[in-house]
Amino acid sequence: MLTISQIASYAGVTVRAVRHYHAKQLLAEPERDHSGYRRYDAAAVVELVKIRTLADAGVPLSRVRELLAADDDEFAAAVEDIDRRLRGEIRERQRHRERIAKLAAGDSLALPPEAVAYLDRMRELGFRERLIEVERDSWILVSAQMPEAVADLMAIKHAQIENEVLRRLYLDIGELADCAPDDPRLPALADRVAAFIEAAAADAVGIEDEHPVSDELVALLDAAFLESFPCAPRLLDLLEDRGWTGWTNIRRKEDAT
User: Fold this and answer.
1) Are strands 251-252 and 244-245 parallel, antiparallel or unpaired?
2) Same domain, yes or no: 73 and 129
């Protein structure tokens, strides 16, 4: 007859595991002998080894008793069912690994490949990382709300960033990202932004916007811009003085009223 420590050693488990199996009523708990110890026989060792083997194979403890009592056909059917469950868990864990890999990949998290390529191009062209981060977060918002439009919108963005005039303007906005609202360079920057908008608006006359952005998303993107750059509110005020309002959806001031 064996003590609880001895039966645990024979079966290759811990004493705590044996007690846990008692609590789950998987292993019968013997009466104490006259010395106050519980004594286990060979049958208990065999039963404990079976329990450990099933548990090590991934069988939930809630089903161990069922399998211990099953005949050959019932056992085979139960094992097949458990195997299906384990295969499903493996697929789910693989999906989790893929998500973790995206987390490690940085920009790839929650962004389609077109947007990631755009951010990579910004880095190649020397844009400040602060501006790239704001772009990334903005495109996460757009991708979540307008996933079907991202490819077309990113094609436009890629074309814009290759436009030397707009790129230089955008780079300069990035350089002023941390400037104070009273920075003397802001009025000249506002003049350049207004001039570019004026030219772009003239080119867009009669062209319908294929992917209009909702007012709610515009407000969210504008708020992100205002929160990201100390000079942003002042720059928008300067643009409004020049007849333009908004940022994500810039339009003539008279058209917005």
Assistant:
1) antiparallel
2) no
